[in-house]
Specification:
The protein is built from eight helices and ten strands. It is an alpha/beta fold and 363 residues long. Strands 1-2-4-3-5-6-7-10 form an eight-stranded mixed β-sheet, sandwiched between helices. It has a two-stranded antiparallel sheet with strand order 8-9. Helix 2 packs antiparallel against helix 3 and helix 5 packs across helix 6. The chain is globular, with a radius of gyration of 20 Å.
């Protein structure tokens, strides 16, 4: 976070959970009897409903059945408590250099701890992060890791993208987030900056948490605080929120009150809300999915099980969601920010205030 104080106003609380009536869907109904709560089970017919329930139940069972093997879990790697950083009062070359140096010290301390404990992979990742050519606004190596890395010059950028990653992202898998952020910054050009915001603990890919709103709702205050500080410090810059996979659930839940121009959901399994109206945002909401992305095969539904409700809400590509849909090409789930991809080119255009190509729905 830019400001390390914790927010307390009403906008910093995640949307309150809605009551679940009989059948497991949210309570709000349209005049036709369809359900439209934030975890809606779409109702085209009894057979489809049963299929979606079955698919989600099977997915939940698979997530719970995956064994934990191999190296130590990322959150099990110990790290020291980072020093508390004073809030940034201005974004200048001097203030940023001071912050980057302080954060580098925290990374080096975590690297020494990982080395002493014999966690060679984590130590190598942290050694690379401590390179003076890299710029971190914040770092905390505990509990899987939290980082905020800047690509480009935040002090002079007139367009800033905040990238919110999805399931499975942590210090040990950080290379994918970093690579995509670097390519996006190059596509934006010299007056663009990208902030890779790993300011929360994403669920692991094969986990029950990846099918629920819990981790997203926990992170809502932190994301809102960061974006609010960024908008305050750089009021003239165009800020866009770029949300991949489970990160789009966090963006959808955090959207109310965020001062951003665009919210882009890509590779999204759902945004934790019924539709754009439920996000209560003045931003333009965009969505895209590559034809090779396995997320398209997930059931967009909510299922009430004995231990809770599973499901991430309406498919953002569903016309009823109301997002502006643009072309992403034939890439897979991790290919959106690859060099030469239609998705990268279109995302850069949107963040620069230009219309993307291949728009199929623009309310």
């Amino acid at each position: 976070m830019i400001d390390t104080t914790q927010p307390t106003d009403a906008h910093d609380r995640p949307p309150a959970p809605l009551p679940l009536p009989h059948g497991g869907t949210a309570e709000r109904r349209s005049g036709t009897g369809d359900h439209h709560g934030p975890l809606t089970l779409l109702r085209p017919g009894l057979a489809a409903r049963r299929l979606r329930r079955g698919l989600l139940a099977a997915l939940a069972a698979a997530a719970l059945a995956v064994p934990v093997t191999g190296a130590a879990r990322p959150e099990a790697v110990s790290a020291p408590v980072p020093p508390r950083l004073a809030p940034l009062r201005a974004v200048t070359a001097a203030s940023l250099a001071e912050r980057y140096a302080a954060t580098r010290g925290a990374i080096e301390a975590a690297m020494r701890t990982a080395t002493s404990a014999g966690h060679r992979w984590r130590a190598a990742m942290l050694r690379a992060m401590a390179d003076p050519a890299r710029h971190f606004l914040s770092f905390d190596g505990r509990d899987g890791g939290r980082t905020t890395e800047v690509f480009g010059d935040l002090a002079t950028a007139d367009r800033i993208a905040v990238v919110v990653p999805g399931s499975g992202t942590g210090l040990d898998t950080y290379g994918l987030l970093r690579g995509g952020s670097m390519r996006l910054q190059r596509a934006l050009g010299g007056r663009g900056a990208v902030v890779a915001w790993l300011g929360y603990r994403p669920p692991s890919v094969a986990s029950l948490q990846a099918l629920t709103l819990g981790r997203a709702d926990e992170a809502v205050p932190a994301l809102r605080a960061f974006v609010r500080d960024l908008a305050r410090l750089r009021p003239a810059a165009r800020i866009g929120l770029l949300c991949h996979s489970y990160g789009s659930v966090l963006c959808g839940r955090a959207a109310p009150g965020l001062e951003v121009a665009d919210i882009i959901l890509y590779g999204s399994p759902g945004a934790g809300v019924d539709d754009v109206a439920a996000m209560r945002t003045r931003a333009a909401v965009w969505a895209t999915r590559g034809t090779g992305d396995w997320v398209a095969d997930l059931p967009h539904a909510a299922v009430r099980l004995p231990f809770g409700t599973i499901g991430l809400g309406t498919d953002p590509l569903d016309p009823r969601f109301g997002a502006r849909i643009f072309a992403a090409g034939d890439g897979g789930h991790s290919d959106y920010l690859d060099d030469g991809s239609p998705a990268l080119a279109n995302i850069a255009r949107i963040l620069s205030g230009h219309a993307p190509t291949g728009v199929s729905h623009a309310p």
